[in-house]
Amino acid sequence: MEIQFKTKNTKQLRAVEAWMDDSVSEIVYGGAKGGGKSFLGASLIFADALIYDETHYFIARKELNDLRKFTIPTIYEVFQKWGLKLEDYAKYDGQLNCFKLTNGSKVFLIQCNDLPSDPLFERFGSMQMTRGWIEEAGEVQEAAKANLFLSIGRWKNDVYNLKKKLLMTCNPKKGWLKRNFVDPFKAGTLELSKKFIQAYASDNTYLPADYVETLSNEKDPVRRARLFEGDWEYEEDQLALLSDNEISSIFTNEGVPGKKYMTIDPAFQGKDEAVIYIWNGYIVEHAYTFPKIDHQTLTSTIDFYLKLHTIERHKTVSDATGEGAYIPAFIKGVRGFIGASSPIEREDAYTPEMEKPFFNNLRSQCIWEFAQRIKEGKVAFKVNNENMRNKLIEELEQWKLKTADNDKKIQIISKDEVKEIIGRSTDYSDALYEREFFELDPDAKRGADADIIRRQEEVNKQTHTINMKKGI
Question: What is the per-residue pLDDT for 354?
Answer without folding.
Answer: 52
